[in-house]
Amino acid sequence: MAMNILRSRALLTSPRLMTSAFLKSPYQANYPAMLNTLHTTHNNHTAGLLPSKHWNAERVLSIGLIGIIPAAFLIQNPALDYALAASLVLHGHWGMEQVFLDYVHGETMSKVANASLFAISALSFAGLCYFNYNDVGLTKAVMMLWSS
User: Fold this and answer.
1) Which residue did the predictor score with more confidence, 38 or 104?
2) What is the residue range of 118's domain?
3) What's the pLDDT score for residue 49?
4) 66 lies in a domain?
5) Residue 91 marked as a ligand binder
6) What total of structural domains would you count in the chain?
7) Which of 46, 64, 77, 113 could be bridged to 100 by S-S, CB 3.0 to 4.6 A?
8) Residue 133 annotated in ligand binding
């Protein structure tokens, strides 16, 4: 039994596994050095977050929303209204970004879609901040809507 465990661990770390077909990704076409090696650090010329870090940030935000939403309704506080506004807009922005990445094809159309997404996200956040500052706040408005 112990030998089987050692063999399976050796297989998981073998170079043969790192070059197998199921580990190859579209990123390898841009980085040919990644074909036969496993890198633990990213190149400095990448723009934005690495896909794995971006995925982690999306998950942290999604889990954070589980706490922010009830806290904003239980504790009526402007800071929580702003945190809720920011997290909802960012969550929606990242979600629509993935939809556009999957379904909008062509260089021009993807640029137009991303530019419109940034504009809509910025306007949404600005509108929610304006509403929080000049009116009753996001959570109080939702509570007033539910009570009527």
Assistant:
1) 104
2) 60-147
3) 73
4) yes
5) yes
6) 1
7) 113
8) no
